[in-house]
Amino acid sequence: MKIYPYKRLNRPVALRVSSVSLKLSDGTRDRLETSAYSTQQQAVALGIAGHTDWVSATIGLSATLPPGANAPDAAWSDLRVLAVLTDGETNVRTSAEFARDAPDGRDWSGSVEVLRDDHLGRVSLAAYAVGTVDGVRGRSIAETDRSWIVDTVSDEPVRGLQLDVQTTSFKRSSREWLQAYADAPWIVDASARVPTVFVNTDVEGVIGLLDSNGSGVDSKVRDLLVAQMATDVWTAVFHGAIGELEVEPSGGPVFPTDWQGEVLREMLPDVIPGVHVEEGLRQVHRRRTGDSGWAELQTRIHYAAIRRADATKALAYVIRGLEQMNRESET
Description:
Blueprint: E1 14-24, E2 29-31, E3 37-38, E4 43-45, E5 54-64, E6 76-87, E7 92-97, E8 99-100, E9 107-115, E10 122-133, E11 136-143, E12 148-151, E13 164-168, E14 186-189, E15 196-200, H1 206-211, H2 217-243, E16 246-247, E17 253-254, H3 259-271, H4 277-289, H5 294-309, H6 311-330
Parallel strand pairs: 4-12, 13-15
Antiparallel strand pairs: 1-2, 1-5, 3-4, 5-9, 6-7, 6-10, 8-9, 10-11, 10-12, 14-15, 16-17
């Protein structure tokens, strides 16, 4: 939890998406269906209509400030509400100002423009209530506790981690770096814009096993293989996210705003249990960059990856299936 040297509101701003439309290259607009955004997931998918020639997107927004924002004895004046788009990959930040729906009300509305050329993938969208406090303008007095995700590519408003799975011959791949792993069945690349799993087609039978959809032994082995692969993926993306952290001048880590932030929010409660995720991030960062504690943390990271991959459930399912197959073969 951050400490502010001035009075603020104790509760977050509630931010909602009310509409999404695309401006196409011929100047026309396409107002997207409500399925383009999910309030539950807090995600927007701009690729849902299949347009390849969109130039910009306009996202309609509404925000509700917490109680006390308009209190006559509030410590702030010149109250404003801003929507802020942040792209950690392109370092582009865009802001738009809301308008108050009614005098002295707590509901505000507005829109923000997403320029396609400014972004490559996922963008974070948050709302801030700012005001003049103790004579200082533009101080944040409340903000959203969880940002929305605007995906400029996806056709499904899903907040969670998305993976790109590619099958290729590691020996003959045009990606020369894969050739060094020619004896591995799969490799996770957590440095890409979207984490990518490369499955090695040189390993005989691996593709057929992953594609099997029967109910025999093959399918049981496939389930275990997928669980192991998922554990590897979660472990790799966690290390990738921790390794790419930006650091404030004070030395504290900055929570990422893209998929890396989502990975950390998913796994930190199991890596450093019992604390807020921001405090968990600080503790992990201190151990990784400090003199001790990082090696001991690897067990917790592995545990968190196992939980995300549902490896225990997959193993139990396989054991039950094999036991049933054995019983049937004995009768």
